[in-house]
Structure formats: C-alpha cells, structure tokens
Specification:
single chain, alpha+beta, 3-stranded antiparallel sheet, about 20% strand
C-alpha cells in the first residue's frame, strides 16, 4: 500500500483510528496499533475495488502527505 496513513489514538472511541486522506471517506480502527493498520489495509483494498467496479477515478498515491 502506497497511500499515506494517519494513525492516532482516540480516547473518545478507545481505539486507534486510521485515516487515508487521499481516499475520501476511507478510515479504519482497531484496539491496537497493529490491528488498526491491518484493518486499514483491508479497507483500502475494498475502497479501491469498489471504485474500480463503479468506474470511478482512483487517486494516484502522493506518498508524503501533501495536506500538512
């Protein structure tokens, strides 16, 4: 996976949250850092698969976060 991931702890959710800023709406969570990362890999793959099946454009990974 070449997309930028933002991973942080959410006290409110009592979980690690993973955001994928280059893929709108693409997020995952997990009770551990490792679980959140693994869940993010699954969600990114599903996001890409859905976009392909709907013939929607897929953003090219930019690598380092361009939004900061």
């Amino acid at each position: 996976m070449r997309y930028e991931l933002i991973i942080y702890w959410s006290k409110e959710d009592n979980a690690f949250i993973v955001e994928v800023p280059e893929l709108p709406g693409c997020m995952a969570d997990g009770s551990s850092y490792e679980e959140a990362l693994a869940n993010a890999q699954v969600v990114v793959a599903e996001w890409l698969e859905t976009a392909r099946s709907l013939n929607r454009p897929i953003p090219e990974p930019k690598g380092k976060l361009a939004y900061a």
